[in-house]
Amino acid sequence: MNKIKHNFYSSPLLNRNNFIHGFFTKESSTLDINSQQDKLVRNGNNNCYINQIHSSHIAFSSKFDHQNIVMADGLICDNDHQNLWIYTADCMPILMADKYQRRIAAIHCGRKGLEKNIISNMIKNFEIMGSFRKNILVAIGPSISGDNYLVDKKTYFQFQYANKFLLDKVIKKNINELENFNNHELISLDIKIYAYLQLLRENINPNNINISSMCTLSLKNEFHYWRRSKNHNRQWSVICSSI
Question: In which element (H, E) is residue 46 found?
Fold first, then answer.
């Protein structure tokens, strides 16, 4: 990820394909996205966002209404002149784009989103709207790292079971190793790896996937993280329609 002007990061993958976007730092908590004063976004575009609830629900940007914010965890552009915003702390901000049709999307995704297959749901929406999977670009921004995301044995087993369709040797090995943990011992869970595995399962080209290694817990001066502060501060991420 490339840092720009000390307040947001960008994905080299999306930059190469000329998509305006940004993964903001904690300074963005007070950002008034409707003011459109930040030079990153396209002035004149409609700023769209959602009421995030850790679901698999995808909303269409054309249905955005400032007076009635829809409950969802994914936004996909089905109209011109849209800026798609999501907010995250420990969860992953995932920005997607069709490099030829210029369709864009944004996802808020954590452990629950992975369990509910929101990534698969979004890709299916791309496909329904005419995109080919080989043309979909994916950039995953700063989020909690596996080293710092620790869960109990029950939560870990439920997550592994929800992802059993991956049938990966690493997952099978992890499930077998659960016998070595007692009920009170915490286990590391790397949500970025599982997001990557789910993208591969959806036939997304590995060369079209860019994942930030930055951890929002470790970089406490740059990012909010709920499990550390226990407050509701978040940082924003955005991707802008190029048409």
Answer: strand 46-48
Domains and CATH numbers, the chain: 2-144+208-240 (3.60.140.10)
Q: What pLDDT sits at residue 159?
A: 86
Query: Helix, strand, or coil here: 112?
Result: helix
State both tokens at 73.
């965890």
Q: What is the H or E stretch that residue 118 is in?
A: helix 118-128
Which residue in this structure is represented by tokens 């908590």?
29
Structure tokens, 112: 């629950």
How many other CB atoms are there within 10 angstroms of residue 79's CB atom? 14
Task: Note the pTM of the prediction, 2 decimals.
Answer: 0.89
Kindly provide the residue ranges of all beta strands, DSSP E only, lying in the chain, ordered along the sequence.
Answer: 2-4, 8-10, 21-24, 46-48, 58-60, 74-76, 82-88, 92-98, 104-109, 136-140, 150-151, 187-188, 209-211, 235-240
Kindly report the length of the chain.
243
Q: Residues of the chain with pLDDT > 90: what percent?
A: 56
CB atoms within 10 A of CB 65: 8
H or E stretch including 59? strand 58-60
| Amino acid symbol at 184 | H
Contact 118, 73 (CB under 8 A): yes
* Element housing 113 (H / E): helix 111-115
Residue 224: pLDDT band with limits 50, 70, 90: confident
Report how far residue 221's alpha carbon sits from residue 219's, in angstroms, rounded to the nearest whole number.
Answer: 6
